[in-house]
Amino acid sequence: MASKGKGFRSLSVTGFEILVGKGDAENDALTFDVAEPHDFWLHVAGVSGSHVIVRNPQHLRSLPREVRDVAAALAAYHSKARSARGKVAVHLCQARDVRKPGGAPAGQVQLKRYETLRIYPRDVSSG
């Protein structure tokens, strides 16, 4: 996962670029400066963790299952839920549905609409 000098990690899954934030300020930059409105955004529900962006240049309405599952597993793995014994909830939406509440600390967001996936946290970045 190449990332030298960036505020996020990057990998490719079946032609889709997946970006994983490295910290709160970097999550904000990734979500609000790097992501396009039609890109997909993922984050584990209820605990601190990385924002994950899946680039969507073709403006697809949904992600292929393999890409969605890899991105969700990465969101879970790069969170405080990493050591969970079972599946964890991961929110998935388009970046256009992510908002920054006024005065909220770095990394904190609100979602307009989303779906919740249940997945095991795992590091799938190395294949």
Verbal overview:
- The model has no long low-confidence stretch (mean pLDDT 91).
- The chain starts with 7 loop residues before the first strand and ends in an 8-residue tail after the last strand.
- A 6-stranded antiparallel sheet has the order 1-2-4-3-5-8. Strands 6-7 form a two-stranded antiparallel ribbon.
- A hairpin with a 7-residue loop joins strand 3 and strand 4.
- With 127 residues, the protein is an alpha+beta fold.
- It has one domain.
Quantity of strands, as a count: 8
Q: How are the strands of the largest sheet arranged?
A: 1-2-4-3-5-8
Q: Into which percent range does the helicity of residues fall?
A: 10-25%
Mean pLDDT: 91
**Structural class per helix/strand content?**
alpha+beta
DSSP strand (E) fraction?
25-35%
CA-based gyration radius? 13 Å
The N- and C-terminal alpha carbons lie at a distance of 10 Å
What is the overall silhouette?
globular
Please summarize the sheet with the most strands: 6 strands, antiparallel
> What number of domains?
1
Please tally the helical runs, counting DSSP H or I stretches of 4 or more residues: 2
What is the string of SSEs from the N terminus onward? EEHEEHEEEE
Task: Give the low-confidence spans.
Answer: none
Topology of helices and strands:
Blueprint: E1 8-13, E2 16-21, H1 24-34, E3 40-44, E4 52-54, H2 65-77, E5 88-94, E6 98-99, E7 110-111, E8 115-119
Antiparallel strand pairs: 1-2, 2-4, 3-4, 3-5, 5-8, 6-7
